[in-house]
Amino acid sequence: MAAASSPAAITCRAAVAWAPGQALVMEEVEVAPPEAMEIRVKVVSTSICRSDVSQWQSKAQPDLFPRIFGHEASGVVESVGEGVAEFQVGDHVLTVFIGECMSCKHCVSGKSNMCQKLGLERRGVMHSDQKTRFSIRGEPVYHYCAVSSFSEYTVVHSGCAVKINPAVPMDRICLLSCGVSAGLGAAWRVADISKGSSVVIFGLGTVGLSVAQGAKLRGASMIIGVDTNPEKQEKGKAFGVTDFINPEELMEPVPQVVKRLTNGGADYSFECVGDTGVVSTALQSCSDGWGLTVTLGVPKAKPEVSAHYALLLSGRTLKGSLFGGWRPKSDLPLLVDKYANKEIQVDDLVTHDMSFGEINKALELMLENRCLRCVIHMPQ
User: Fold this and answer.
1) Based on CB atoms within 10 Å of each CB, which residue in 248, 278, 292, 295 is the most buried?
2) What is the pLDDT of residues 43-91, one digit of tens each?
């Protein structure tokens, strides 16, 4: 019914990146109506994820500017496109950077969240027609991860949004659309941490702390946090970290310290930094025979992973994890319920609440490692 009224284009404010690493500029942008199977969302809250900052700074795709970043967001459906039956105007939603079409080989397998139709979008356009829904003075503005939440309104594919309970606070639940879910899923779904096990986590940002929380809730007996920021020691304790290692204070390699603490190596090791060199360190830190290393970070440089073959020959496993293995539509509502029931911690990961006009300050805080999550409150 809502689609029959043929929604018109909207003009709103968006924080536009005109070139890699340049400060975002508040611009009046035109947001096109949603096409078939798409929805237009009024963004309520968007948090800043490390990958937003990395891609904004990256010069790997200079032709994908001007661009609107942001992907970790909550909002309200403003209009729906043709064929959309799942959403209605006024629904509260989380946006997600990978979709779930429910019909491709991966979606029907039940074993994967690597949707073949709505997978990670890297070309700055919509999945459906490879075009943008944003423009300034008639010129296209590119999307990011098919979400682009640094805008008062955005258009997403209906398969890249999840309807949520309207009672949960939008300015906190937005963290579940990426970072927190990625960490919890890595601990629960990908590693499937067992009770009484030992865990080492490299990088205690939002993702690493969420891995720690997941490990604690699974009953891990030792959770070692590794970070060069000494302030993360206290924060880590609140999320279950039992031991803290600062590599800059050591006179020996981190794996040696981990092996001494765990009597031979951790059962599970997690790389949450986004550094392929740390992947090798994490692999060396887990146990012979059954040690499992999960890599979650998105590297900013040197994408190739290198490790001595003997590490694998001795029985260790290296696994990758995207969004914690969660299938957005099938699984995210369960995490929202856990948050509503106070079974998982999210609020304490928000270190700053800021207005939309302060978005460049929020990016600086992330660049300077002075925050976990900054939540941007959009004008309502």
Assistant:
1) 295
2) 999 999 999 999 999 888 889 999 999 999 999 999 999 999 999 999 9
Alpha-carbon distance of 267 to 167, in angstroms, equals 39
| Rounded Cα–Cα distance for residues 182 and 274 (Å) | 13
Alpha-carbon distance 356 to 15, whole Å?
Answer: 8
* Among 128, 134, 174, residue whose Cα is nearest residue 154: 134
- What is the spatial distance between Cα 335 and Cα 326, in angstroms, rounded to a whole number? 10
Residue type, 340: A
CA dihedral 286, 231, 321, 16 (to 10 degrees): -160
Name the phi and psi angles at 58, rounded to 5.
Answer: -65, 140
- Backbone CA torsion sign across 311, 315, 316, 317: positive
Look up the pTM and report it.
0.96
Residue-by-residue DSSP string for 302-323 = -------HHHHHTT-EEEE-SG
* DSSP type of residue 187: I
Q: What is the largest CA-CA distance in the chain?
A: 68
- Helix/strand/coil (H/E/C) assignment for every residue in 63-121: HHCCECCCCEEEEEEEEECCCCCCCCCCCEEEECCCCCCCCCHHHHHCCCCCCCCCCCC
Q: pLDDT tens, 108-139?
A: 999 999 999 999 999 999 999 999 999 999 99
Three-state DSSP class for residue 142: strand
pLDDT digits (tens, 9 = 90+) for 226-283: 999 999 999 999 999 999 999 999 999 999 999 999 999 999 999 999 999 999 999 9
Task: Find out whether 273 and 298 touch, Cβ atoms under 8 Å.
Answer: no
Question: How long is the chain?
Answer: 380
